[in-house]
Amino acid sequence: MTNFDYALWIPLLPFLSFLILGLSANKIKARAAGLTGVLSLVLATALSLLLAWSYFGAHGGGHEQAYAALQPLKWVWLRFTDTLPFEMGILLDPLSVMMLVVVTLVSLMVHIYSLGYMKGERGFARYYAFLSLFTFAMLGLVLANNIFQTYFFWELVGVSSFLLIGFYYDRPSAVAAAKKAFIVTRFADLGFLIGILILSYYAGTFDFAQLNAPDGPVLSKDWAPVFGGHSLMFWALLLIFMGAAGKSAMFPLHIWLPDAMEGPTPVSALIHAATMVVAGVYLVARLFPVYELVDYGAALQVVAWVGAISALLAAIMAMVQMDIKRVLAYSTMSQIGYMMLALGVSDGGADALGYTASLFHLFTHAFFKSLLFLGAGMIIHALHTNDLREMGNLRKHLPWTHWTFLIACLAISGIPPFSGFFSKDEILAAARENHFWIFAIGYFVAGLTAFYMFRLYFTIFWGRERQYSHKPHEGGWNMKLPLAFLALITLVAGFIPFGEFVSADGLPHHSALDWKLAGSSIGIALIGILAAMYLYSEYKQLPSQIARSLGPLYRLVERKFYIDDIYAFVAKRIMIDTIGAGVAWFDRHIVDGTMNLIGRTTLRLSSAIKGVQSGQVQHYALAFLGGALALAVFFFFRS
Amino acid sequence: MDWQKLILMRDELSLTVLLLLLLVLEIAMDSRRKHQLPTIALALFALHTALGFLPLASGHLFGGMFHTTPMLQLMKSILNIGLLLVLLQAHAYVRSEWVGRERITEFYFLLFSSLLGAYFMISAGDFLMFYLGLELASLPVAALAAYELSRQRSAEAGIKLVLSAALASGVLLLGISFLYATGGSMYFEDLQKGLSPNVLSVLGFLFFFSGLSFKISLVPFHFWTADVYEGAPISVTSYLSVVSKGAAVFVLGILLVQLFPLYADIWREILVVIAILTMTLGNLFALRQTNMKRFLAFSSIAQAGFILLGLLAGDSRGMTAVLYFVLIYAFSNLAAFGVVQAIALHTGKETMSEYEGLYRSNPRLSLVMLLAMFSLAGVPPVAGFFGKFFLFMSAAGAGYYGLVLVAVINVVISLYYYLLVIRAMFLRKSEQPIAHFVSDLPMRISLVLCVAGILFLGLYSPVYEWVLGLVL
Amino acid sequence: MIEGVSIQEIMAVSVILFFIGVYGFLTRRNLISILISLDLLLNAVALNMAAINRYLHPDNFQGHFFAVFIIAVAAAEVAVAIAIIVDLYRLIHSVDVEEVDKLKY
Amino acid sequence: MDILTSLVVVPVLTVLALFFVKGLRQARAWAAIGTGIELLLAIWLTVWYLQLRGAGHTEEMLFMRDVLWFKSLNIHYAIGVDGISVALILLTAIVLFAGVFISWHMQELSKEFFISLIVLGTGVFGFFISLDLFTMFLFYELAVIPMYLLIGIWGTGPREYAAMKLTLMLMAGSAFLLVGILGLYFNSAPGGGQLTFNILEIARLDLPMNMQRFLFPLIFMGFGVLGALFPFHTWSPDGHASAPTAVSMLHAGVLMKLGGYGAFRVAMYLLPAAAAEMSWIFIILTAISVLYGAFGALRQTDLKYINAYSSVSHCGLVLFAVLMLNKTSFDGAVLQMLSHGLMTALFFALIGMLYERMHTRDIYKMGGLMKVLPVISSVYVIAGLASLGLPGLSGFVAEMTIFVGAFQHEDLFYRIAVIGSVSAIVVTAVYILRAVGIMLMGPLKNPAFADLPKAAWQERLGILLLLVPIAGMGLFPGWLSEMIMNSLDHIVAKF
Amino acid sequence: MERLLFYLIAASLIGFGLLTVTSRRILRAAVYLFFVLAGMAALYFLMGYNFLAAVQLVVYAGGVVVLIVFAILLTHGIDHRLRLAPAGQMLAALALSLAGIGVSLFAIFSYDFPKVLREPEVEMSAIGQQLLSTGKNGYLLPFEVISILLLAVMVGAIVIAKGRKMKNS
């Protein structure tokens, strides 16, 4: 058995980097700061690759036995009760190891890329500090061996996301976006927390291993329905999924994600494309046995539908966006919807194809989506704008970007042999087996994806040449290198026999492509691409004409289905302006008013009775005798 | 009669000697040296006070008309301390134009004879002695209240006091006559055996109680208090609020337990009602006062209401609480009056708003006032807290939790107006603050004594144990 | 003891006198007439004391002496009161009780 | 002299020393020395305490000392500490010491200021070490009274009004308390024998139920007023808003803890049966406090009001946890007291610094301060994050312990109440971020604030004193929680 | 016979009492007071308390009334007519007095007084002896105390008077 204790250093290295950068408080030189960040990540990446190598390699090839879930480290961090301690620990299983690789790799790329992208920015050290903090938190989240630890890092991830979105804190839109991101996810986390409370109360443990164990406290019992025809466990899982949906920007908790694009683009690549936003998927996958078995997978149904709807809505919204990053953001949402959908359609069967497919997609998506974002970053870096309408015919100016971007677009559209094709195809296969309508949505979305991605691609790199204030040029090696690296992965990742490593039951599975399905999905992708090509490869009036002819429908989409407005209404009008102001008013006027009234009444009373002391000695005598006689009368009548 | 037993009357005799000595001095002394008289009187009285602390046996004299016990002795000592402080504070006042050189002796003479009256009232073994003590205690004070001849307010205070007091003693006497009719004796010892609750004796008791309540300023028998306190010279007001009231409280406590044990159900009920009325109305009246003397008058009314809580239980612990409280109250209240007097004497200012910014010009005086207010309000760690706490404790011990709650809420109300004084002195700043001044030595001594009392009487528990030991 | 007259009757007389005095105290507008009412009132009590002694407890003279002392004290009271009243008159040239209200509220 | 008594004596001596010094420089030097010694004592006490516990001392209280005070009434000066009091003493010492540095430039009546501040501290220390209800009550009021002067003299805004309101309401609370304490005393010897105020002795009794029913609400409400129990919390916003910085720190940070501690140590511990029976009423009230405070903070524009309402919410959570009657939630309550104490003190310190520089506390008049005052602003953000329960900072530890613990209650009603109060974390996030967003972020709103003085050394020191424990508690809560937990067995055993 | 006399005296007492408190000429009020006091002295005589009657006449009729008359003359014109109190105050006072009378009479008449059988004669010598005795029912101490009281009151009254003269001169 290999000793995996060094796994602790994987999250710890970025944390150290964060401490160094954070405590030096911007006094550190930019170059040193960047170096610290990158170096820590290089080490962490190396460690995690080593770990993955030895973990997966331990079994050798061709084995038929499950990967062991290891807990090399575990200590009680805070003892809630003797039976319910809050532990910190490391859980190594295929899922976490895979995530470890994804997170460190993408993070490393982003760290390197940022050296160029963020060069000369104010708060460069702060940026790297936050980036390190995020990486630490994400790694901690991935390695968590119990649900409370997950929650711990879940929140940390959220806050580092907040800090990074709000990195340009003097930009009001960035501040608003950061706030929105934090508050929406916080709201979702409320569900998560309550879910944890319910789950742990009935299960008596936080530990994933125990929760997922077939003979554990959750799965060995039949939970009687108590509410709405479902058991409490179901509701707990649903609440936990609420947290997952919030982090993963699932409908209807997705509204923060497009706005989060206010953060620096590398941040979007890392957090809002590759890693943090898939934490929800990761969480559901973590608790997959529970989701699968409690109430016969009823919660999983919800997951599937939420994923499907999110995928569809996001894809639709992505078609009309004019901000390059927003298109990518919606695309992210859509793809995560895919992943959720895939998890949701994993039926209780032995091979649970959807589970593997989902995580495979997570894996591939992380790379090509961060590639897309970094490419977008390159463009923004060159043009200083996000607006598609100010772009065009950039393929000559930005060749590296162009080619890598194209690779990524093809990958996401599901064109073989790029990685996205394989994972997406598995998802569709899984969905088809399970639920027709979900499959149909997935299939349709595949076409939409191809369409809007290539809309993006053609608009940027083809189309009309614009008046650029200065000639666009690409960044240095530190920006190009990550692009190249990610593109490389995108090219080859599809051929990884993912099912060999990651599967619902831990056993290796071999998945074969179903060429019938693959063919049709390639077909719809091609249709999408061609449509986009027709509309956008050269400048035409047609797209706007179509938009105009769709009228209200178009507006509906453009206004993001008015979901943001509903939220704004609830948050601003109801929470702050009605309840908040109401409570404030109530407190000032009723509660405080009552106290003041008591005080003032006493004083008034005092003023009112002062006159009794009239200065007339006879009045005093009257009172005196009256008092004496009153006493007498009182006792006469009483006895 | 065994004349050697007259030693039991040590304090009365000593004070009488003092009185006579004053008369002799008045006659014998050169009028140019009259200004030394206050010092002499003070020294003599200090001697007398010290004498009072010497142990003395219990016993009775004159066929039971006079009796003394260590507890009564202690009560007299407490009154002595009160008067001693008053004298210290009056030292500068009596030599001011308000009194005039040729009336100094009389001032002391009247104060001492009033104290003598209080002694007899406390030590009385029958109604006659009690009545005479009462009158001896109050009539000279009426003259003292009117002492500032050129001020209408002073005369007004005097006439109000004398008329009200006479009416009160009339009612009290009517009550005594009814009690006498049913109980068959004026001697407490015999009367107690003869008394049992019936229509006439209850009426007598109620009249008697009302008359005595007048002296303690219990609501609704309190109306004279504020006017008299305001109009009288401050020394006299101090005397009234501490010594007169203290004596009356003591007597009430003694008589309720010794003479009216069979009426306990009745007087408990009355005390509850009157205590609530007194505390509450005293407080309500005090809330909006601006004149410091008048303000302190109402405050002392409210304090009297609190004292009643100690009488309720009717046991030694309650009596101890009362004695202890009065002792503390004497120090606290006289500290307040001392400051008021010092300021009035130097600046003629008596209004609360004129005290604004006092701390910045006269920090020490303000600190004394602060302590006094805190002690009166019953805030730890000063003595007033302990005094009140033990009063409440004794009432709670007798089961009067509701009353205690009312009382403590009243403490909070009272805190409001005590804080008003502190607010004026500490929080506010003034355009024309009272200029810095230094009081005369006796005043400063008295204030130091008061502060020492306020600070240590509570914390130093042997005092309480000592009082308890004497009461038992 | 007065032949044929019960104690109740005498006490009734003195009580009535007492409250006549009270009435006077409460209604007269002049400090001196208030003082007169007070004397009425105190003497009524003295009468009561003496009568009770004579009728109910004739073994000794407690009530009788009490009455004597009440009379003496009442006289003293009058002396002090008159001194103050005269002083007040000198200050405000009035003995009207309504004028004596500078101290109030 | 034993170490606990010196905790009270050192401040008293400091006060005495302060009476004789002149000028700001001397005064603050002496205050710093006195409170510094106090802090060292508190640390020493903590270490020593842990050593003793480690060495197997399992008594309920350590460092016990009992001096008969009023013999005939059986009033003792009885002191002793367990893990809970040790933790709170440490908190008090930290906040007090930091408070001195935050008030470094107290120009007006500086000597008097430090005297009052330290008198307040004396009361708090005395309260936490008391095992005798009488002394406890004495110290309780001693801690409250200086507030009047502190707010009244050195406060801002409607200071006289606020000071008066605060003092009167707190004193009114102690009125109920007093009656409750007397009730305990007179029922402390059911079989005859000597009445006592001693907490440990009363705890051994099984008081009759009807008496408990009568006393519990009195005592709980009495302490609840100081613990900002709805609807008796209204002294808090005005009081905090008007108080000078160090006073707000000490008051919200420490003094309000007296309420929670007292409610726990006296009401719950001594009257367990009534507590169990009547807790639902107060659960409702405290749950309202939690949500109400949070919602109340949403719309405030004055920083201090935001923080005051936030304190209502957080302190409500303390009482809420106390009522949940199990070990974990008790532990959480104490942790929350510590956590809230530290971070609210930090908040007020920062607000004070901001106010000193800008002479406004209106968040709408600020904006973009992050650029101008990076240290203060960053720390403000951290404090805010601690307040909304970010993991790695103290708030998370405390809140999670409370939620998990409270949720262990068997009764469904209580668990639903927990869910209700958990919801406050969202609202907390909203008001914290709102303030941060408006005040610190965005472009600089007022050009006059472009070059405000940076944080001075004493300010940084004050901040650091509070920030380090916040982070320390957030990262390594284990030992603290264990220390508290170990002291809870006796109390939990009563339920 | 005595009974008739008593009723006569009682009636005059009450009558003159009423006149005392209602007469609008103050000097007359003083005179009516004198009549009341004299009536009381008569009752004392009837009861056999001659000493008391004598004291009453000497101290009161002789001293106090004269003092009052002097005071009246000092402060009023001879034919000064008093104003009436406000009606409300009169009414209240009347009600209060009647209530007081009612309550007291109720108590007196509902109380069952014991019948005293033995009725010793009042001996002047016994009174004298008791006045100076120190034992039970001895009145030496009160006698001494009242002398101090009178002394104090005299001092008080004089001091006020003396001061006034000083100021005037």
SSE map:
The complex is a heteropentamer of chains A (639), B (472), C (105), D (495) and E (169).
Chain A: H1 9-24, H2 30-57, E1 70-79, E2 85-92, H3 94-117, H4 124-143, H5 147-165, H6 172-203, H7 208-212, E3 225-227, E4 230-231, H8 232-247, H9 256-259, H10 265-274, H11 279-286, H12 288-293, H13 298-320, H14 324-344, H15 353-383, H16 399-413, H17 419-434, H18 436-461, H19 477-492, H20 498-501, H21 515-536, H22 542-550, H23 552-558, H24 563-610, H25 617-638
Antiparallel strand pairs in A: 1-2, 3-4
Helix pairs in contact in A: 1-2, 1-4, 2-3, 2-4, 3-4, 3-10, 3-15, 3-19, 4-5, 5-6, 6-8, 8-11, 8-13, 10-14, 10-15, 13-14, 13-18, 14-15, 14-17, 14-18, 15-16, 15-17, 15-19, 16-18, 16-19, 17-18, 17-21, 18-21, 22-23
Chain D: H1 3-19, H2 23-54, E1 62-70, E2 75-81, H3 83-102, H4 110-129, H5 133-144, H6 146-154, H7 159-186, H8 199-204, H9 209-226, H10 235-242, H11 245-270, H12 272-298, H13 303-322, H14 327-358, H15 369-372, H16 374-387, H17 394-406, H18 412-422, H19 424-439, H20 457-475, H21 478-492
Helix pairs in contact in D: 1-2, 1-4, 2-3, 2-4, 3-4, 3-11, 3-14, 3-20, 4-5, 4-6, 4-11, 5-7, 6-7, 7-9, 7-10, 9-11, 9-12, 10-11, 10-13, 11-13, 11-14, 12-13, 12-18, 12-19, 13-14, 13-19, 14-16, 14-17, 14-20, 14-21, 16-19, 16-20, 17-20
Chain E: H1 2-22, H2 26-47, H3 50-75, H4 87-110, H5 124-131, H6 140-168
Given helix and strand content, the structural type of chain D is mainly alpha
The total number of structural domains of chain D is 1
Q: Which percent bin holds the helix content of chain C? A: over 70%
Count of DSSP-assigned helices of chain C:
3
Write a short abstract of this structure.
The complex is a heteropentamer of chains A (639), B (472), C (105), D (495) and E (169). Chain A is mainly alpha-helical.
Main attributes of the structure:
heteropentamer; B: 472 residues; mainly alpha; globular; D: 495 residues; two-stranded antiparallel sheet; 21 helices; 2 strands; 3% strand
Q: What does this entry look like structurally?
A:
In chain B, 76% of the residues lie in helices and 1% in strands. The radius of gyration of chain B is 21 Å and the shape is globular. Chain B is built from 19 helices and two strands. In chain B, helix 3 runs antiparallel to helix 4, helix 6 packs antiparallel against helix 8 and helix 9 runs antiparallel to helix 10 (234-258). Chain B has helices at residues 10-28, 37-52, 70-94, 104-123, 127-145, 152-183, 188-194, 199-216, 223-231, 234-258, 264-287, 292-313, 316-347, 358-361, 363-377, 383-397, 401-427, 441-459, 462-471, and strands at residues 59-61, 66-68. A two-stranded antiparallel ribbon of chain B has the order 1-2. Chain D has 495 residues and is mostly helical. Chain D has one domain (3-492). Chain D contains 21 helices and two strands. In chain D, a hairpin with a 4-residue loop joins strand 1 (62-70) and strand 2 (75-81). The model of chain D has no long low-confidence stretch (mean pLDDT 89). With 169 residues, chain E is an all-alpha fold. Chain E folds into two domains: 1-83, Four Helix Bundle (Hemerythrin (Met), subunit A), CATH 1.20.120.1200; 122-169. Chain E has helices spanning 2-22, 26-47, 50-75, 87-110, 124-131, 140-168. The termini of chain E are far apart. The interface between A and D is large, with 55 and 64 residues.
